[in-house]
Amino acid sequence: MLDQFRKRLRATARRLRRVERRELQDFRRWAEVTENLVHLSMLVFVPLAIVLVTTLANAVPRLSFLLFPPLAAGSYTLFVDPTSKYSDPKRFVAGLTIGAVCGLGALAVSNSYLTAPGGQFGVNALGAGLAVFATGVVTWPLDIEEPSSYSTALLALLVEPNQRATFVASIFLASVLVAVLFIIWREQFYEQRATYLYESMSGDDHVLVPMRGDSAGQTAMLGARLAAAHEAGKVVLLDMVADSDAATTKQSLTRDTIQLDIRSENGSESPPARTRLIGDGGDPATAGVSPDKTDLDAEVDWLETHADRIETRTGVSCQVVVASDDGSPAKTTLQTAAETNCDLIVAPYESQHGALTPYLQRLFRSKSDIVVHRSRSDRTRWKQVIVPVRSVSDVAHNMVDFATRLAGRSGRVAVATCIGSRGDRRRAEEMLADLIEPYEGAFETRVPRTSIQTFLSDTASQYDLVMIGASRDRSKASRFISPPTFERLEDVETDIAIVDRGRA
Known about the structure:
12% strand, alpha/beta, 504 residues, 4 domains
């Protein structure tokens, strides 16, 4: 009884850990969207800045509490758009301080030449206008216009004569404190967010390539060039055969065999491996028949040739794995990826009745990151890459990262979003700017007023590769009414890479 309770307790703990990991992964992907990250940071760091300033004000009673309204507004302006001209720390400090000085100057003039209205907070209307006018006249030619400077200018009109110098000092010290906090956040976190948040930047460097179909060689080279972007990159070429006898024979012919323990559902062991993937399960009529050694020699030579070519051209370590598919090539592919510690699967494109084959559909439903490559030529280098996106997302970041890996320093990456005839161009341009900002390389952005299918049909020929999302987040009903974009690009003669992030 006690043992059963312990087992149930351990099972419950495992389920809770899985839920925790899934929620953490969902939060991480949500935070990858720059707009979400900025607003989250604003909710954390703006209150933190006010806490620090309030603590300082409480410790130094002479500091004026009139600084809080403009300081809060200015802090919001800093954090809400870290790349805008108003998010310059020098502009922020100088603007607030000069606004306070201009306000005090206007107060002195109004007290000398104008009659102030009665009341504790009475302010002459012309004096208020003079404070705002002076602030604009001074900040404009100095190019330090700051929205909150007008607030400090008006608040300065309420300062008592014996607190004027203290008010200016308070504004200066508090704004410097907020500016320092902003600089630390922007340089150490915001500008490094790709390293902290974007999993593809540090992962997807161990690539498994199922060697299926006539274009497997080109797909293997694409996978190798993705892996070559990282020093620890490696490529594993997977060859699946229909039965264990063929796998045993083929692995004995390879020069460098990797021993894997891949088991089928019934628990039987498949042979060790170091090779390529052949088909969707083989011909049942030939199962158990000893393979012809001459044919195996030719296949092994073919695999070894690709492995040598990958290592020579990219400098990436390349291994060959042979495995029995046990009637389920997709399962064997995923198991092999886990056994060889591969975090990305790059597979050749396969279609059936105008849609993906069941093999590729199963891969897309897995937890692994997937790239499906449709080759239209013998191309093995992709220096000009276009990435059409719908929005900023984890998949969009993956595509841009992969595109920059392929293009390299000498290539070019174009990122595009189609807005139709009534879309908001400015918002689309800002979205693309947020998307590419964390990455290094030569980028161009395109915002055509047309459909994605028409745009790619007209422009894809200008590029070596179209990198597009798999649209796996859409419902079945939506996909039935409007098929995924990649399924509507049969007439495009440019290479296409379909990208999908694994789902936990």
